[in-house]
Amino acid sequence: MSEAAALDALRAAGFAGPYACALVTGTGLGGIAAALADPVSLDYAAIPGFPGPGVSGHGGRLHRGRLAGRPVLVFEGRAHAYERGDPAAMRVPLTCARDLGARRLLLTNASGSLRPEAGPGSLVLLADHINLSGLNPLIGEASDARFVPMTGAYDPALRARLRTAAGACGVPLGEGVYAWFSGPSFETPAEVRMAGILGADLVGMSTVPEVILARFLGLPVAALSVVTNHAAGIAGGAPHHAETKAVAARAAADLGRLVEAFLAGLPEQEGPDD
Fold it and tell me: pTM of this prediction?
């Protein structure tokens, strides 16, 4: 019911698509919305079923407009599982993105790095994830659609487009595996060591639920991470939220250039193979 009510409200407010891409911005990265041409904006609080983000650095507004000449839908901020214990908090927004006509989903986040050489300000393209939270947004889904295959969850074609875009705009872009911890407390040094043994390059408290939901909804998805700190115990890392917001804001210019180059590389006329 809330999804239908949300769609009705969004269509009435001028949010009908189609969109070349929907974007979700992470902590301190909402500046992408400020770059939109011909924007239309709406507070999450005005949309039935949308969560109100309760984390500083997340604006809590939905925007439509054009970026790099492409029509886009921008979610300025997300709800996190740790806010209310609900890993499916972004299900209504992402379902609306699909039903309004978004062809793809691009997620951004702030993360801690397990690589001493990938320090604060680095951009990393996610290749895969490890879910260490014990949570899943599809728990309680009754249909067989809940059995979502996760091989290639981070869409290979979108990742290739992002690597091409990074080369075109001169933004260094690494690639790595993201480990999702539930938060909201930061990881301990022992937990970070464990994540590294398991194959993680980054740690964070978001994104994975949205990737699972995107695959459930049939949306191709990719994710970019801004490294805001070294994870606990790595190169002297002792992360805190103020650092996360400050470094994300400084790295936002590179992220914005990369996102615009990525969007500019998308086809102007969508076809069945695009």
Answer: 0.91
